[in-house]
Write a structure and sequence with these properties.
This protein is mostly helical and 265 residues long. The chain has two domains: 2-54, Molybdopterin biosynthesis moea protein, domain 2 (Alpha-Beta Complex), CATH 3.90.105; 69-256, Hypothetical protein af1432 (Orthogonal Bundle). It has helices at residues 37-46, 69-87, 96-115, 132-150, 155-167, 177-180, 188-194, 197-205, 213-220, 242-256, and strands at residues 2-5, 14-15, 19-20, 27-29, 50-54. The strands form two sheets. A three-stranded antiparallel sheet has the order 1-5-2, with no helix packed on it. It has a two-stranded antiparallel sheet with strand order 3-4. Pfam families: HD_5.
Length: 265
């Protein structure tokens, strides 16, 4: 099989892997499906960026996944449940099970990355079509762990980084949905509201005694920039906590590599 970007897909090609749908457990299209022009146009419209295709030249070649599709689906569901509980204004202090579930996902991310040492940068298939918020949180967690692994951080710090990534946008559940789901660039006024989400994430998680201060600081500073032009504090250089610096790279990379309604990846 071979992975092809959406622009290279043509009618008559056979899928070599399922394409995930909105519900991670229900595929958009299944292995063996023969693509047609209507399906390819639909894939483009909803933001699917490519697919694995079966060809004679690549027969027998199996790409290595950092996260297996079934496990990825389970992790996405856990992240979605965490955000859904946050929308209900359930605090992490009063709902310990929510934290334990997301902490388990963080450890699973780290375990998968460490077991795939020689394939760390085979990331071509990391993004499929899922709800952007949940998949973004998972991918920022994975990318942050990759960076942390590369610079030699301990396993406990990698677990912290994964948790930072999974929860860094939890504060967006307190931002008006018409802003978070807007299919286009934000106005200046909307952007100022959106810029509150790192601090809202920090405040939402602050009372959870199981989350370390280092994780909280990383989440709160993931939009700071090395030149001091970020937010919410305008920190610069190494005044930005290490987790915040790592998250910033992972966050921007994943955002830029994802197709959004108002721009291509």
């Amino acid at each position: 099989m071979i992975y092809l970007p959406i622009e290279k897909l043509t009618e008559g090609m056979e899928l070599a892997r399922n394409i995930p749908g909105l519900n991670p457990m229900l595929p958009f299209a299944v292995t063996g499906y023969i693509l047609n022009e209507r399906t390819i146009n639909r894939m483009m419209n909803i933001g699917i960026q490519g697919a694995y295709i079966q060809t004679e030249l690549t027969e027998g070649i199996e790409p290595v996944d950092i996260v297996e599709p079934e496990l990825k689906a389970k992790m996405l569901i856990s992240i979605q449940e965490t955000f859904d509980e946050s929308l209900k204004k359930v605090t992490f202090q009063t709902s310990r099970q929510i934290y334990e579930n997301i902490a388990d996902v963080a450890k699973t991310v780290v375990m998968n990355v460490l077991s795939m040492d020689k394939y760390l940068f085979q990331m071509i298939d990391i993004r499929d079509y899922d709800s952007y918020t949940y998949s973004h949180s998972l991918y920022v967690g994975i990318l942050s762990v990759l960076i942390g692994r590369y610079i030699g951080l301990s396993i406990s710090k990698l677990n912290d980084l994964a948790l930072c990534g999974l929860l860094h946008d939890i504060g967006k559940t307190d931002i008006p949905i018409e802003i978070t789901n807007k299919p286009g660039p934000l106005t200046n006024e909307e952007y100022e509201i959106m810029k509150q989400h790192p601090s809202l994430s920090y405040d939402k998680l602050f009372d959870c005694t199981s989350i370390s201060q280092s994780v909280l600081q990383g989440i709160q500073t993931h939009h700071e920039k090395y030149d001091g032009s970020g937010y919410p504090f305008g920190l610069a250089g190494e005044n930005i906590p290490l987790y915040g610096r790592i998250l910033a790279i992972a966050d921007v990379y994943d955002a830029l590599s994802a197709t959004r309604p108002y721009r291509k990846a």
